[in-house]
What does this fold into?
Amino acid sequence: MQFGLSEEQVLLQDNVARFLTDNVPLDAVRAYADGGDDATIWQGLSELGVAALLIPEEAGGIGLTPLDAAIVAECLGYNTAPAPYLGSAVMAPTALAASGGDHTELLGELAAGSKRIGIAFGEAIGRRNDAGVTVAGASLDGKALFAFDDAADAYLVASNDKALYLVDADAAGIKPLTTIDKSRRTVELTFDGSSATQISDDPEVFNTTLDIGRVMLAADTLGAAQNMIDKAVDYAKEREQFNRPIGSFQAVKHMCAEMAAGLEPCRAMVWFAAHALAELPDEARLTACHTKAHLAEVGKFVAKTATEVHGGMGFTDLLGLHYWFKRCGANRQWLGAPELVRDEAAALQGLA
It folds into this structure.
């Protein structure tokens, strides 16, 4: 059996990669990191159909699969593209579809890219300090840290008991939170009797949405790590020491080979995890956990090693390598650090 991408998926990959290469160079990432916005980037991606990938055709979407979404996520990670993809194009449509309610109008707005939904799942995964979201009737109280997308029109919020609520951005107190990753922004949401619309009270809807989010973060890390390897190999071919390229030294060869050997199997792992979400529901949760945890470790190793190949230049803003380094670091923590995700995998297998 051959497991690979179809012609249509390769075409999707090529089109998204070409758009990002042309429209999201490193200078665009720097501009966003310095306080710019991602509206133009998201509009362009939406015109390509990226925002509509997982939305059913009857709601104005394209109706593709999680594997197609993972292909796009890898491209976004490769370019460290600032975009609300994880929330607006992946997790929010998944939750709305899984809830069983009629959300046709909202899904249509998401498909067109005219509305953005951020994600606040952190407190249902592992609460920090005094954070947490409680429910009283049709309103929310509490605090959600590190919610995705500072420019969202609304937020999909998970309460402490894993029920999902849609809250307009105007109904929540929003405070920017600084993280190491300057290519995406997170916020702190404060609720004080904030009006909310319940999307689902079924923990399985939360789990389904969390699983696809974790796989997309793993795919994003795959793309970011691949870019760092490519940059390290190119640099090793050009940088000379003792009148010869540093790539000719065996130690540097070993570093590059070890990165490639560690990352290459991850591509099949990500593809299978995305495939399992739609086709193998009994394996989906466990596979998503393993994939998220493993890519977090491999991404950390590649980011560290690729920076070392660059020597002192790797720490400068001139090359911008730190954007990919920090992207891998942020992906490692968001939606569950590898230690927490492995605990969940152990529990699923009856080992803990």
About this structure: The chain has a mean pLDDT of 93. The chain has three domains: 7-112, 117-202, 204-348.
